[in-house]
């Protein structure tokens, strides 16, 4: 399985970015695709996730109301639209996939394949 994340960049506070994660290499039925982020000196933190089958969506509290996760089955791609960005959203954003259940969806340990990360920098 390979995951390719893209879409990061430099944006001013209040701006928007859309990150993309292309997943290839195996079938995804039953899998969850998630976004995590890691700021310098901090642990990797859950952002949002979507189940490939059924489309159940999960958000971290910090993402609710500002971020929207979606998927394009035909393109094997998961997106996260990030609006109203804040300087504290600055981090490397990673996409990952794993066989998760509701209680494990927000844990990085539940994901067995990771992309390379894309840097999001929000200036104040």
Would you kindly provide a written description of the structure presented here, covering whatever features stand out?
The strands form two sheets. Strands 2, 4, 5, 6, 9, 10 and 11 form a seven-stranded mixed beta sheet that branches. The chain has a four-stranded antiparallel beta sheet with strand order 1-3-8-7, with no helix packed on it. β4 (32-38) and β5 (45-51) form a beta hairpin. The protein is mostly beta strands and 124 residues long. It is 0% helix and 50% strand. The protein has strands spanning 2-6, 9-12, 17-24, 32-38, 45-51, 57-59, 67-72, 77-82, 91-98, 113-114, 118-123. The mean pLDDT is 95.
Topology summary:
Blueprint: E1 2-6, E2 9-12, E3 17-24, E4 32-38, E5 45-51, E6 57-59, E7 67-72, E8 77-82, E9 91-98, E10 113-114, E11 118-123
Parallel strand pairs: 2-11
Antiparallel strand pairs: 1-3, 3-8, 4-5, 4-9, 5-6, 7-8, 9-10, 9-11
Summarize the structure.
By secondary structure, the protein is mostly beta strands. The protein is built from no helices and 11 strands.
Number of helices: 0
Taking pLDDT < 50 over at least 5 consecutive residues as the criterion, the unreliable ranges are: none
Proportion of strand residues? over 45%
Describe the largest sheet: 7 strands, mixed
